[in-house]
Amino acid sequence: MEQTFVMVKPDGVQRNLIGEIVSRFEQKGYQLIGAKFMQISEPLAKTHYAEHQGKPFFDNLVSFITSGPVFAMVWQGKDVIQVSRAIIGKTNPTEATPGTIRGDYGIVTHKNIIHGSDSEESAKREIELFFQQDELVSYAKDV
Ligand code: CMP
């Protein structure tokens, strides 16, 4: 089953949006298989955002993502990588469609509420970066 990494960023946590965001993924039909309320260290932030190293916003990105607690999650289900990007909306919240998380709650790119993996490769990398295999649960077939 496909898995993806989703994280409520410090602005989303401070605005009490964890429940709303979890609810949107649950209502769509996805399963939460891992969750961690944590503060990201500077080395972890730099590794997570390595592809943006050298860009003008990199230092601000690292200081923002380490500025307060985040809620890191792994979600599972059919086409969850692509569909979660649609649930989340465009990176720049002013371009994100209303009805998406960023479209409903964000205004600026550097405080865009939530992160979601953008490909199979980044989902695998980000899940392994934030979670040990034994921190991910499996569901019983019949509940
Ligand atoms: P995210 O999906 O977490 O992935 C990389 C992040 O970099 C992105 O969300 C934005 O928060 C941030 N970002 C991308 N482009 C810019 C930009 N031009 N200025 C500031 N932050 C940016």
UniProtKB/TrEMBL annotation:
Annotated active site: 115 (pros-phosphohistidine intermediate)
A Gene Ontology cellular-component term: cytoplasm
EC number: 2.7.4.6
Task performed by this protein: (Microbial infection) Catalyzes the phosphorylation of dZDP to dZTP, when the bacterium is infected by a phage that produces the substrate for the synthesis of dZTP (2- amino-2'-deoxyadenosine 5'-triphosphate), which is then used by the phage as a DNA polymerase substrate.
Gene (UniProt): ndk
Cofactor entry: Mg(2+)
Protein name: Nucleoside diphosphate kinase
SUPFAM superfamilies for the chain: Nucleoside diphosphate kinase, NDK (SSF54919)
Entry similarity comment: Belongs to the NDK family.
Coiled-coil stretches: none
Keyword Transport appears in the UniProt entry: no
Lineage: Bacteria, Bacillati, Bacillota, Bacilli, Bacillales
UniProt xrefs under InterPro entries: NDK-like_dom, NDK-like_dom_sf, Nucleoside_diP_kinase, Nucleoside_diP_kinase_AS
Organism encoding this protein: Gracilibacillus halophilus YIM-C55.5
Top-rank taxon, per record: Bacteria
